[in-house]
Write a structure and sequence with these properties.
alpha+beta, 12 strands
Length: about 300
């Protein structure tokens, strides 16, 4: 790595502009904005954003923050193509990974696009191992079929007064995701920051009891796109078409509000949800490979 390259914590507006530019160049499927990045940092000051700069130009960036799972940290490193294979990625990784100890994490993990063979080889050489895959799916919106009613189930748009009940459903359903190990729901504040940041959440009710929910969240860098949050149905009510009905309601809502595309992620191994998505016309993109190793 050139000795003129400085690696430091991102602090100035210029740092965050450069961070976003590098991130979006390398990860165009998950673009970010400066405003959203700074908002997250203000809400979660334990996040670490790092930039690598030479002569006023940001060449790479790194991130470290808490994972959804207790005792784990999430790491990410991005380097512009012309600056790869010069040690910059390793230097960025060395800069962010000690932050895992500050977060009391014993495991660090990250995600690599399945169609990025070079980056996958890079992380595997550094002791990470593949532990799973997230399948990414997209749905172009057009003329949608009307939502189908389910006997005994009412689906309606939720309000802030329902947030406690939504979280209760999440707490029951989160550990059922087909992750390498059971994963409890994150603390309410972290969960709410992600799941409730969008324009709408729908709930499914059996009488007065909420038995499922599905959230849509915004992508500030892609205002025409919405992302599915968690789609959850309590164990006692699975297999009755509730998840499909919730997603159909989301499709209709998104079309009615002028959105053009929906994006969702499903863990490899979650065949029931993949079948629902396929039935509803979603198509797969290259998966995201989940990698992990012990913190050092």
């Amino acid at each position: 790595m050139s000795p003129q390259v400085e690696i430091r914590r991102a602090e100035s507006d210029g740092d965050f502009v450069g961070y976003a530019e590098v991130w979006n160049a390398i990860t165009p499927r998950e673009p970010i904005t400066v405003a959203e990045t700074k908002r997250r940092l203000a809400r979660q000051p334990w996040r670490l954003y790092v930039v690598a700069e030479q002569d006023g130009r940001i060449l790479g960036c790194g991130f470290a923050g808490r994972s959804d799972s207790i005792g784990r940290a999430f790491l990410a490193v991005r380097v512009l193509p012309d600056w790869r294979r010069q040690g910059l990625g390793t230097a960025l990784l060395d800069r962010v990974q000690p932050h895992a100890a500050d977060l009391d994490a014993t495991i660090v993990q990250g995600r690599v696009a399945a169609d990025d063979e070079g980056s996958l080889k890079w992380v595997l050489k550094r002791g990470f191992v593949e532990v799973g895959r997230d399948v990414e799916l997209i749905r172009q919106l057009g003329d949608e079929s009307p939502a189908v009613s389910l006997e005994g189930i009412v689906i309606k748009e939720l309000t802030p007064t329902d947030h406690g009940a939504i979280y209760a459903v999440a707490v029951e359903c989160w550990p059922d995701m087909p992750t390498p190990e059971p994963m409890p729901a994150p603390p309410y504040e972290d969960w709410a920051l992600e799941e409730l940041r969008g324009p709408v959440v729908f709930g499914a009710f059996d009488g007065d009891r909420m038995v499922g929910y599905a959230a849509l969240v915004t992508r500030p860098a892609s205002p025409e796109v919405l992302e599915h949050g968690f789609t959850a149905v309590v164990r006692s009510h699975r297999g009755r078409g509730i998840a499909t009905a919730l997603k159909r309601r989301q499709l209709a809502w998104a079309v009615g509000h002028g959105y053009r595309e929906l994006v969702t992620y499903t863990q490899e191994g979650n065949e029931p949800m993949r079948a629902i998505n396929e039935k509803l016309g979603y198509r797969e993109r290259p998966a995201w490979i989940l990698v992990r190793r012990e913190a050092v």
